[in-house]
Design goal:
alpha/beta, six-stranded mixed β-sheet, six-stranded parallel β-sheet, 18% strand, globular
């Protein structure tokens, strides 16, 4: 057990208030000046099944859900058995060890005892003093857990009051219930030997979906159109709840096809628009994505991955959509793909996506995953100073206006509908510089070649302006671990583990999967070993890297629906290095 950090897991069935309890704990830690990283294990049912929510906190930055477990709050008997028994292990999650504490209702009977410390409490009876609502026992258990690690009760009380908003009586009843649990624990059980360095620092606690939404608003978003689909829904819900605050229009249409077509229409009219979905919904959008590519309409699309194919695992994470997004819609057309590595990256890359879309007049896809979208992290203040760049726009009449003029950089001047004198055609068929279709009576091969070259050369300019590919502890690295998107945090922790063992490992962190920065080839050359790490079955990025840069690689994949855990991943890396 580490004494400078704590990992708490709340386990129970769907409908037991598992996530709400976990978020109260996470907010209490963040308001205590601690860094937080959460993990949500849940099912696609309203009630029943087995869910758990994990919160890791420390005064140092925590980049993943971590290894180990210090405190278990078991809301039912199944959770108590599941998280204390070594044989039951979801996706690499560790069980409660001999130094860990299990807090649960004293009414649980006939459970198998393992090596951990069992601390039964009359949770239901203590909660009944204040309410008949059975879920109030969760609040009692949270109070006990905070007492176990000496967290200031008044900070917890403030979080509870905020959680229940304007429900004054209900909020105070929950505060009293938490105090009952807090005091009961101190009177009956010993504190853990965990010394968290709390402070007056305050961090923002948010999910990747929320961060992405705020980044879009900061970039000038005025219209978001999306059909609900986990895990992209987290951004949709946030924007819908705050559309009046942000002065934006949020629309939920009948399906994803309508959503992307409305977003294309908004962008064509000059409104910064965005749509979003998960892989299944994005699959319905691909025809309109190609239309935006052909018409050279700026478009930002949020694609948040979950385990597929088809409906797959609706509440589980994966990185299996890279091939889909790279090849979405028929034919060749320029597209830019960005892949946030964490909650903070979600803000900055989404913000950048809007400028890129308008500068290069092409679709930009912000490609996240369920882990990044739905888990919560503490972040520092965002830099909200941002210059909106709308690219080549002409707002007055132009003699002989050519919407698709063949230019050196492949980018022509846009003119919004209604601009006097600049009438032109926008068509999904191949067209000439004026937008006139060239494939009706006879196809002009010369114009087809010129138009294709024009559209595709945009990426040449983007590649030249790309920032360097991020790395971690790479200056003296002999072993390169390559990751993309949301595996950043766990890979960085693995590198720290390997460094402690004398293995000089470093990370190449790809957050711009297409087009790839040519500097990646230089970063990988002359390394003793290159290991690519992906949350999918086939190693989609690995194949791209091997073909693009002719580099020899090893591959580690995980595709059970859960994220990597640092301890287990470090062992896999070491096994490869020992071959």
């Amino acid at each position: 057990m580490k004494t400078d950090e704590v990992i708490i897991r709340v386990g129970g069935a769907a409908g037991d208030g598992v996530q709400s309890a976990g978020l109260i704990i996470a907010k209490t830690f963040s308001r205590s000046g601690l860094h937080v990283n959460t993990y949500n294990y849940y099912q696609s049912i309203i009630r029943g099944g087995q869910s758990w929510y994990q919160v890791r906190a420390s005064d140092s930055k925590v980049r993943s859900q971590g290894d180990g477990l210090d405190i278990l709050i078991a809301l039912n008997r199944d959770a108590l058995e599941r998280h204390t028994t070594p044989k039951i292990n979801e996706g690499g999650a560790t069980y409660l060890g001999k130094d860990g504490v299990a807090i649960f209702d004293a009414s649980f009977k006939d459970y198998t005892k393992e090596e951990c410390q069992y601390y039964p409490m009359p949770l239901g009876d203590l909660a009944a003093k204040f309410s008949k609502n059975a879920l109030m026992k969760n609040t009692v258990a949270i109070g006990a857990a905070m007492a176990a690690i000496s967290i200031d009760f008044e900070i917890l009380a403030g979080v509870i009051r905020d959680q229940f908003g304007n429900k004054g009586k209900v909020a105070e009843e929950n505060v009293k219930a938490a105090k009952e649990g807090y005091d009961y624990y101190l009177s009956n059980y010993k504190k853990l030997e965990i010394k968290l360095k709390t402070s007056d620092k305050k961090y923002f606690l948010m999910s990747g979906g929320e961060s992405l939404a705020i980044g879009a608003v900061n970039a000038g978003l005025k219209m978001y159109v999306g059909y609900p689909m986990t895990p992209a829904s987290s951004a949709l819900h946030y924007l819908a709840n705050h559309q009046k605050d942000f002065d934006i229009f949020v629309k939920i249409p009948e399906d994803e096809i309508s959503a992307i077509n409305m977003a294309v229409g908004g962008s064509y009219a000059g409104v910064r628009s965005m749509t979003g979905s998960s892989g299944g919904g994005f699959s319905l959008m691909v025809e309109a994505l190609g239309m935006a590519g052909m018409m050279e309409v700026p478009l930002v699309v949020y694609e948040s991955q979950r385990a597929g194919p088809s409906t797959g695992l609706p509440t589980k994470t994966e990185q299996g959509d890279l091939n889909l997004v790279l090849g979405a819609s028929q034919g060749d057309f320029a597209r830019i793909i960005l892949a946030p590595r964490n909650v903070e990256d979600s803000f900055y890359l989404t913000r950048e996506a809007f400028n890129l879309a308008e500068k290069y007049q092409t679709p930009v896809i912000v490609m996240s995953d369920l882990f990044v979208a739905e888990h919560y992290e503490t972040v520092n203040d965002f830099d909200l100073n941002f210059k909106i760049e709308r690219g080549k726009i002409v707002d007055k009449a132009v003699d002989n206006y050519r919407r698709y003029e063949y230019t050196k950089d492949g980018i022509s001047y846009r003119s919004f509908p209604g601009t006097p004198g600049n009438m032109h055609n926008e068509d999904s068929d191949e067209h000439n510089e004026y937008g006139d279709v060239v494939s009706d009576a006879i196809t002009d091969p010369t114009l087809r070649v010129e138009s294709m070259k024009k559209r595709m050369k945009k990426l040449d300019g983007y590649i030249k302006e790309m920032p360097p590919t991020p790395t971690y502890r790479y200056d003296d690295a002999e072993v390169a671990l390559v990751q993309w998107g949301g595996t950043q945090g766990v890979v960085e922790e693995v590198i720290d583990i390997l460094r402690e063992k004398g293995i000089k490992a470093g990370a190449v962190e790809i957050n711009r999967p297409h087009p790839l920065n040519p500097d990646i080839g230089k970063l990988l050359e002359a390394k003793k070993q290159v290991i690519v790490i992906e949350n999918n079955y086939s190693g989609q990025m690995n194949k791209i890297l091997r073909s693009e840069f002719l580099v020899k690689t090893d591959l580690i994949t995980k595709f059970d629906g859960e994220s990597f855990y640092p301890g287990a991943l470090a062992k896999e890396v070491e096994a490869i290095l020992k071959r």
